[in-house]
Structures are given as structure tokens and as C-alpha cells.
Design a protein that fits this description.
The structure holds two protein chains of two kinds. By secondary structure, chain A is of the alpha+beta class. In chain A, 21% of the residues lie in helices and 31% in strands. Chain A has three helices and five strands, in the order ααβββαββ. In chain A, 34% of the residues are buried. Chain B has a domain at 22-88. In chain B, strands 1-2 form a two-stranded antiparallel ribbon. The chains are: A alpha+beta, B mainly alpha.
Chain lengths: 143, 98
């Protein structure tokens, strides 16, 4: 069994089951949507790092996933829309250790930072929140 | 027995940071931190990597588009060299816009 989890995929499916998040958007992926799909808000998930926290380098078990989630406003470019999405995603992530997830145990979720720099690559600059989290997790059912 | 009153000095950290001993101690640390950031930087052109400097007690990136490299944009993935590099070296990024 491959013990390295797909944290991007796990986060995507987890957030798609959260009612507060899906009430705002279902566009959650590892890449930005196509230009024509940037009408609704979206979340982009990027894995920045995944450090082995097991005190034995031969065993890949407990991993600290360092993730960035970009919460973008839709075409109306309202700050509050990006903010509401960010709040919903953040609240869902913080509750993650309380949930029983298939094949994975999430021990902790720590928000490392949460700035709100607009994305100046779009014209006009699109409202965006950057949610940076550290997720400590290991596969379920392992010793 | 004499009474001793503790008066907190709100400027303590600021004062310590101006001492030559502190600055000298920080030089090696900022050199190590800057090296870690360079290792984590993308190497497409090498421009970003060559513009990460340890200057005194600070690590600076002199690339004006550092925020695009660090946090990404709709068209760019976040490479996060500052965050990943410093984290790997045991530090944490605090953005100082000065």
C-alpha cells in the first residue's frame, strides 16, 4: 500500500462535502479554472511541502502537509465574496481532525497565515485570500 | 530583604536587536537562511535566485515580482521559496514590506 496520501485530492473531496463551502462554490481544484469559468468563486489547492515527521527516515508514515489554498472572488470581484469563501474553507479545515475520513487520520490542522492580497495578474485585480495551513496526517489502519 | 520591583521594558527586543553582539550572531543565521531560500527558488532564469540577499540581520529578495513567485497568481503556481526555504532551515517567514 502506498502510504503517501494525496492531500490535494483529499482536501478537494473533503471541501466538496462541506455545505458552507459548496453553498459558495464547487470549483475546487489544484489549478485555476479556465478563463470562461472564472465567473463563480473558486479555490485552488497547492501542496507546498510534505515533510516526514516520523522519527525514522525509513518509515513514511506521519507527514506534515504544508498547503496553500487560494480563495478567489468570482467575476463580480466582491471582497466579501472572497472573504466568505475563505471563512467557510478555514472553518471546514479547522474541523477536519474531528471528522472520520476514509483511509486517513488527520491529527491536526494549523493555520500558518491568512493574508488577503488581491491577484494583480487579472484586470482588475481579483480579490483573493491566501490560506496557508499545516496538516498533520497519516494513513488509517496502519501501525 | 530588599524589595525588587519588576518593570517590563517594552523596548527590550528592539534594544537587543541594535547591539553589535546580536547583529554579529545574526549574520551567520541570515546567511544560512538566504542559502536555504536560494535552494528552494525556481531556476527557470535564475533571476530570483540571484536576487536573494542576506543583508545585515535581514533576508531580502530584490526581485520586484517576488510576490508572484512566492504566493502565485491565477497564471502562476506558488513556488513559495521564502516560506519553504526558511521552513526547511528551521525559521518562519515574517513579511516586512520595508
Amino acid at each position: 500500500m502506498n502510504e503517501i496520501l494525496s492531500m490535494t485530492g483529499l482536501l478537494r473531496s473533503y471541501l466538496l462535502e462541506d455545505e458552507a463551502v459548496t453553498a459558495i462554490t464547487t470549483q475546487i481544484a489544484h489549478s485555476s479554472p479556465a478563463e470562461s469559468d472564472r465567473v463563480r468563486p473558486w479555490v485552488r489547492i497547492t501542496q507546498l511541502d510534505a515533510r516526514n515527521e516520523t522519527r525514522d527516515e525509513r518509515i513514511e508514515h506521519l507527514v506534515n502537509y504544508y498547503m496553500q489554498l487560494d480563495c478567489y472572488a468570482g467575476a463580480n470581484n466582491r471582497f466579501t465574496e472572497a472573504e466568505d469563501l475563505n471563512r467557510a474553507v478555514r472553518a471546514a479545515l479547522v474541523r477536519m481532525p474531528e471528522h472520520t475520513l476514509e483511509g486517513v487520520v488527520v491529527s491536526s490542522v494549523v493555520v500558518a497565515s491568512n493574508p488577503a492580497p488581491a491577484d494583480t495578474d487579472l484586470t482588475p485585480a481579483r480579490q483573493r485570500f491566501i490560506l496557508e495551513v499545516e496538516i498533520l496526517a497519516h494513513p488509517d489502519g496502519e501501525s | 530583604m530588599a524589595k525588587v520591583k519588576y518593570v517590563p521594558n517594552p523596548l527590550f527586543e528592539e534594544e537587543v536587536e541594535t547591539t553589535p553582539q546580536f547583529k554579529r550572531g545574526m549574520w551567520d543565521i541570515t546567511d544560512d537562511g538566504a542559502a536555504a531560500v536560494r535552494r528552494a527558488a525556481p531556476v527557470k532564469t535564475g533571476y530570483y535566485r540571484h536576487h536573494v540577499k542576506a543583508i545585515g540581520t535581514r533576508i531580502r529578495t530584490l526581485d520586484v515580482f517576488w510576490h508572484l513567485v512566492e504566493f502565485g497568481s491565477v497564471n502562476n503556481p506558488p513556488f513559495a521559496p521564502l516560506r519553504r526555504g526558511l521552513r526547511a532551515a528551521g525559521f518562519r517567514l515574517v513579511v516586512d514590506p520595508r
